Sequence to fold (192 residues):
Amino acid sequence: VAISAELNRNPFDVLEAESELVAGYLTEYSGMKYGVFMLAEFTNTIVAGAIFAVLFLQGWQWAVLSPLGSQVGFLGFLDTGVVRQIESHFWFLFKVGLFAFAATWVRATLPRLRIDQILSLAWKVLFPLSLLNVLVLAVEVIVWPEPSVGDLAIMAAINWPVAGAAFFVAARLVSLGTRAPGLGVGAAAGVR
Fold:
């Protein structure tokens, strides 16, 4: 969500959304200038994907079984230094490409939100979820200062249901807050 906001992509492109319809910086560029501008925006997506791959997807290591991958190698019998270099580049570029695909998919499928909807999402959903995350994490760090593998499994068994329940409650709160008061189907259709 933070990367999407930093890249000014859906649903956080409100600054450009209204202005691109009739005015703004996109109407001033055409041809190569427009192409270079769009290339720079897509390059931002690739750089964000590289940062995401390094920080959250083990960077250039094999995504599924990194200990086995370092012993056997992705290509098995061709386990030389050159093959390991090619393999690490392949996995890194694959993860960056996967992020770029997901970012493009999200941009193509999500509708553009109004500013009040984005603020409602931020204050009613994301901020309380982040506070709940900090609270649960603080309790887990106090209970397990140096967690073992079993402790991490217990933390996951705690975190996933808490996250699911929090998203369910947040979705219910947002859906209840978006309905217009006093308007039913008949009233909206003009039937009294």
Observations:
- DSSP finds ten helices and no strands in the chain.
- The longest helix spans residues 81-109.
- Residues 180-189 have pLDDT under 50 and may be disordered.
